[in-house]
Amino acid sequence: MKHVRTAAIAGFDKTVTDLGGDFKHICALSSVPSDSFSPKDYEKYITLDKVALLMRNAATVTNCYHIGLILGMNKKASALGIVGLIVRDTANVKSAMEALINNLHIHAQDSIAASFRFNKKEAILSIDPVFISGKTNHHLADLIVGCSIGLLKSLCGEAFKLNTIKLSERDRDSLTQYKRLLKTEVEINHLHNEIIFPRALLDIELEGIDPQYNALIKDYVAKSDEITNYSRRVKNIIRNMLSNSKCNIDYISSQFNFNKRTLNRKLATEGTSFKYLLIEIKKEEAQKLLANSHISITDVAMELGYAESTSFTNAFKRWFGISPTKWQQQNGNNNNIVRQYSVLK
After folding, report:
1. What secondary structure does DSSP assign to 280-324, as a single string?
2. Are residues 73 and 142 in the same domain?
3. Are 338 and 298 in contact (CB under 8 A)?
């Protein structure tokens, strides 16, 4: 079961109320206690399925297609708890992004797949919810994108600027309002949700945090290193490397300064293996990508590291007993878009 810290949806009650919705009614519809949003519970965890259900019900009740984005963009680094402190306690925005990728599991427990890269002109943060049971929805992805933008804004200050936002499957009628809310160019129906911003922002220096918090962070990280979960870390690397030819046990074991036998031995103590983890991630990513009805089978195959779509199709049939084309027809988001949202004015 995928989980995130309850702080990820802090402010949900106020956002719903501001949009004219009945917060307690939405909680009841979602079978979530309304007192779950108290600040004292922010360090507790809630399942990703429940967050998705809350956001879907809130969007329906408030008639607001963009509620996830609105909620997320109001957040700052503090919403990430200890991860927020780790991110802020870095030299510059570049190292902050790297710290986010390396420590996001503390906040999201493998519920979010993220990667970060940059070239001479642009920096790209790719961030997606991991596939959850039933149909995923754009509200959850919008929440994650919004939180990421809020974090970047709090790190960059007045210099903050976006180049482009690329979103996975969305209703085309919603595009104008996305552009208004994000104040930048927005493209939809991509494989991943990506935040693209100027490379120059990575050089912004950060002030760091209070030395007392710094000591707490170092102690926390030290304790975390003592109980390293290799399967979790391997899964994160696999997700980021799936489409790359280097997504193999030799390369990934080298990231830990191990040989492949040592890595498999450590994974075996956790009751798993590299081969098993690779297949599990491919299965999760295949379902997540195929849920986007605009994505072709060939593109999904390439994203998962298959040289030919036929190889992917055969693998998918082994996993789920159905072809990816048939699965997409039955589960693609286009088949389940409820056009009951009005675009915010």
Report:
1. HHHHHHHHHHHTSTTS-HHHHHHHTT-SSHHHHHHHHHHHHSS-H
2. yes
3. no
Beta bridge partners of 127: 114
- Do both 308 and 240 map to the same domain? yes
152: burial class by Cβ within 10 Å (0-12, 13-18, 19+)? buried
- Tokens, residue 5: 């810290």
Task: Give bridge partners of residue 46 from the DSSP assignment.
Answer: 4
DSSP letters, 133-199, are: SS---HHHHHHHHHHHHHHHHHHHGGG---SEEE-SS--GGGHHHHHHHHTSEEE-S-SS-EEEEEG
* 3 in a structural domain: no
Name the 3-class secondary structure at 244.
Answer: coil
pLDDT tens digits for range 177-202:
999 999 999 999 998 899 999 999 99
| pTM of this prediction exceeds 0.90 | no
Residue 312 reports pLDDT greater than 60? yes
* Summary count for the chain: helices (H), strands (E): 16, 7
By C-alpha distance, which of 176, 141, 148, 174 is closest to 162? Answer: 148
Question: Measured between alpha carbons, how far is 268 from 231 in angstroms, rounded to an integer?
Answer: 9
CATH classification of the domain holding 289:
1.10.10.60
pLDDT tens digits along 77-109: 666 777 777 888 889 999 999 989 888 877 776
For residues 96 and 171, membership in a common domain is answered with: yes
Average pLDDT over residues 99-121: 84
CB contact at 8 A, 196 and 117? no
What pLDDT shows up at residue 126? 93
Q: pLDDT tens digits, residue range 200-217?
A: 999 999 986 555 555 555
Give the structural domain span for 270: 228-333
Give the pLDDT confidence of 35-62 residue by residue, as tens digits.
Answer: 887 877 777 888 888 888 999 999 999 9
Domain shared by 136 and 245, yes or no = no
Q: How many whole angstroms from its chain centre is CA 123?
A: 17
* 121 has pLDDT over 90: yes
